[in-house]
Design a protein that fits this description.
This protein has 1 helix and 5 strands. By secondary structure, the protein is mainly beta. This is (2Fe-2S)-binding protein.
C-alpha cells in the first residue's frame, strides 16, 4: 500500500510503501533528518507526527492503515 508522506517545515511530499524505513523515505525526498546512534537512544532523529506523537525516525517505518502521513521535523542546533 502506498502512503503519501509530507515533511514539514520543508513542505516536501513523497510516496512511500508501508513498512519502509522513515530515514529511507526522507533520503529519497531529499529531506535531512539528523541521526546519531541509529538505535533510537540519542533522540537526534526525533520527529513529530501530525497527531502529536513523538517518534524516533531511525527506528520507525511508514505505518499501516493511513493514506497520508505528516512528519514535522525538529530543528536541534546540537545535531
Amino acid at each position: 500500500m502506498t502512503v503519501r508522506v509530507h515533511f514539514l517545515p520543508d513542505d516536501v511530499t513523497v510516496d512511500a510503501q508501508v513498512g519502509e524505513p522513515l530515514l529511507d523515505v526522507a533520503d529519497r525526498a531529499e529531506v535531512v533528518i539528523p541521526t546519531g546512534c541509529l538505535m533510537g537512544t540519542c533522540h537526534a532523529c526525533t520527529v513529530e507526527l501530525d497527531d502529536g506523537e513523538i517518534i524516533r525516525a531511525c527506528i520507525s517505518s511508514v505505518p499501516d492503515g493511513c493514506e497520508e502521513l505528516t512528519i514535522n521535523l525538529f530543528s536541534d542546533p546540537t545535531w
